[in-house]
């Protein structure tokens, strides 16, 4: 999503630092007379087909495809985009959407109720292992009534369903350009969003231009945006300082963030914006592995890992230690792992293993992706290895793969322990628990957790007022702590660095911290 780094209630910038002495961050805005605004990111899409993407590809999708609902600037609940939608019953099981009049795709084809039904049915029919079908677990059927009405019937109450429809995974596609039962293979996109894709070079750049057929809430403050993909933070920052790009989004390494915070020198004419974030990083333990399958091993690791050291030594305090899967700022957040394990303690970890009859050194292989979550990921895993081996209890081997093959590996259950980052599909505690549990989840490692999947989540989804579901999520997190199948490590912040003549960076993040590039513009005066 540019890499889905994702508290949501505070998504506006909380700190804005100008690196140009005496300059305001405000100014008159203009169109891009100087050419397209160029955005840099270290997270390239894994696919251009929405049916195959439940990842950072969504960040491109948000700007090119359209969804029934979305998030206008400042909104934290889904609002109308392609349609006005509402539950028509008191049980949260029938959801009706009425499309805007005269909608078309970027190629001029009609966007009607049948196209919406086709798009959703297609996701389910293809059921790609890397796709968003997992978000549609409560959907029973989709019905198209005439040209503009779509009715979704759910198999159980689900107050989060509007949030699901607002994710870029539910993008509306043109039936004439996307096969019903297979993925589109070329590098083209036909959508109905604010921009159309003029050209695409995999791993290099995406060129976006205004979609003149667009009808939706977005007020575009530019006519064109080019997104450039980088392999690491250093090269991206170098391009920013050389004015080859105008703004960075996702993937800034901690050292680069600290360096960009210094005034003068190479930073002349740049600005750094810090925003609250809800993205998390965590470890996943594979029950197919003979060592990771042992509860005592998982609990011993939880007892040894020093999150504060990772946050400080690796990320220079640009992230915060995290002790639950639900990040701070969301209803239902707890500190369960700290409450249960306290500070890192090798002696307690040794006792946990001893009580389980494990007296030998535990061998484990930790996997991470080499090109997805930023340049600091390798350093993070070296720190984890150092911490675990310093306890004298573990022997850790580190391995990595590029994201595209990494995903396939964990979906096949190949990794004993592996790292993942998660940015919410939508701003609700449900989305930090539901995707990771169940026999078929987003991690490729079955985790039945029946009390969560059959009692707590269904009960919470009957409640439309999400402030009233904290108890269910707190109970769910206690189960996660008990099982230690997932180990939260840290919660991120969002950093955007840009040229001082680019405005809108602080407004451009939706509640999942996906960049809405239509908010970016150039300033004409100070």
TrEMBL record:
Pfam families for the chain: SBP_bac_5 (PF00496)
Localization of this protein: Cell envelope
PANTHER family: PERIPLASMIC BINDING COMPONENT OF ABC TRANSPORTER (PTHR30290), PERIPLASMIC OLIGOPEPTIDE-BINDING PROTEIN-RELATED (PTHR30290:SF10)
Name of the protein in its database record: Peptide/nickel transport system substrate-binding protein
Keywords: Signal, Transport
InterPro entries: Peptide/Ni-bd (IPR030678), SBP_5 (IPR039424), SBP_5_dom (IPR000914)
Coiled-coil region: none
Family, as annotated: Belongs to the bacterial solute-binding protein 5 family.
SUPFAM superfamilies the record matches: Periplasmic binding protein-like II
Domain Solute-binding protein family, first and last residues per copy: 79-442
Classification lineage: Bacteria, Bacillati, Actinomycetota, Actinomycetes, Kitasatosporales
Gene3D superfamilies the record matches: Dipeptide-binding Protein, Domain 3, Periplasmic binding protein-like II
